[in-house]
Amino acid sequence: MARSAPAPLLYASTDRSADMLYFGGFDVPDPFIAFATGGKKIAVLSALEFGRAKRSSGFDRVLPLEPWLQKAQAAFPHVKPRAGTAEVIALLARAHGLRGFAVPEDFPAGLLDRLRRHGLKITVTPGAFFPEREFKTAAESAAIREGNRCSAIGIAAAREVLRASKIRGHRLWHRSEVLTSEKLKVAIEIACLEAGAVSLNTIAAGGDQACDPHERGSGPLRPHELIIVDVFPRVTATGYHGDMTRTFLRGRASDAQRALVAAVRDAQLAALGKIRAGVNGRDVHAACVEVFTLRGYPTKRTPRGSVGFFHGTGHGLGLDIHEPPRMSGAVDYALKKGSVVTVEPGLYYPRPRRLPHRGRRASHG
User: Among 266, 328, 272, 275, which residue's Cα sits nearest to residue 293?
Assistant: First the structure.
């Protein structure tokens, strides 16, 4: 007779764990206990969250933390400084006839150690804890579309600020002040907030700063340079993300800059033409690389860092901004029906060089 899989156990806040948010469909800012047994999802929550969870969470049962904590302190009087989360979980396991749990890779190490000392068998699950998160339902797809609507509103706010800016010497000015990356990000983030999403770590980077893909940008923005704006907000109501990048230039674009932007757009179109269920993500990535190679944009390692196209073409999008699947030259993976992926090739050439420089152009799905 085959043994049943160990019961899943989570201890995290939904701010830090997309798995917890997915499991219970309920936003809680502090870590809490949640597990499943007998086909039922069970959460243990303090009085602060108990009533709200009973009304609106996706858990089948919500247990009050305080009585279980009192039981644990009575059952484990010698635990120092005093019984806590590990002991509550040990009692819950005993009450539900469970000898152990499966936990995700990011489960707290200290808590895992204490649970094992209480005799529980804890199995750390490699990779995705809920592999089904990769395949989006119609409701999840709609939530991601809402995320991208908020992304587009943030992008539009950046466009309006840049359009209204004035060129004075080697600076852009807006409303009688030098326009900086920081000020542009504030405009983007306010627009996203008003649309119902929170945009953290927004990127608004110009010139050579834009050649480091996750450089957020700082200081004055200059005319005639490519400016990368990358907006990936989290919708407050659902927790799902949007993800969108656009490249701007205020002033006059050089032929080299126009050619670079055109190459990235053509690479993106080539990738989009390849994407369908069953296609290997490596082949999607190769379609981008082929465009860049034919256009004469090499990828190299240099003492200053890599140049060209040195990251993957895209990634999954959902409750996490980066989640499975991945489309890159390093991973063999057949895309599945129901996946949502970004498509974001880019070119990065810091100056000085004879090839096009100062930026990239990337557009997320």
Answer: 266
Q: What is the pLDDT along the chain (365 residues), one digit of tens a residue?
A: 345 789 999 999 999 999 999 999 999 999 999 999 999 999 999 999 999 999 999 999 999 999 999 999 999 999 888 899 999 999 999 999 999 999 999 999 999 999 999 999 999 999 999 999 999 999 999 999 999 999 999 999 999 999 999 999 999 999 999 999 999 999 999 999 999 999 999 999 999 999 988 899 999 999 999 999 999 999 999 999 999 999 999 999 999 999 999 999 999 999 999 999 999 999 999 999 999 999 999 999 888 789 999 999 999 999 999 999 999 999 899 999 999 999 999 999 987 544 333 344 443 33
Burial of 252 (0-12, 13-18, 19+ CB in 10 A): exposed
The Cα 267–Cα 363 span in angstroms is 10
Q: Which domains does the chain have, with CATH numbers?
A: 7-129 (3.40.350.10), 134-327 (3.90.230.10)
As a whole number of angstroms, the distance between CA 246 and CA 227 comes to: 8
Whether the CB-CB separation of 160 and 205 falls below 8 Å is answered with no
Question: Which of 353, 237, 321, 334 is closest to 283 using CA atoms?
Answer: 334
182: how many CB neighbours lie within 10 A of its CB?
14
Q: CA distances (Å), 278 to each of 256, 282, 332, 360, in order?
A: 37, 12, 12, 30
| Count of helices and strands (H, E) across the chain | 9, 18
CA 222 to each of CA 162, 171, 267: distance values in angstroms, whole numbers, following the listed order: 11, 5, 27
Per-residue tokens: 264: 């990235």
Rounded Cα distance between 72 and 79, Å, is 10
DSSP string spanning 260-312? HHHHHHHHHHHHHHH-STT-BHHHHHHHHHHHHHHHT---EEETTEEEBS-S-
* Residue 249 identity (one-letter amino acid): L
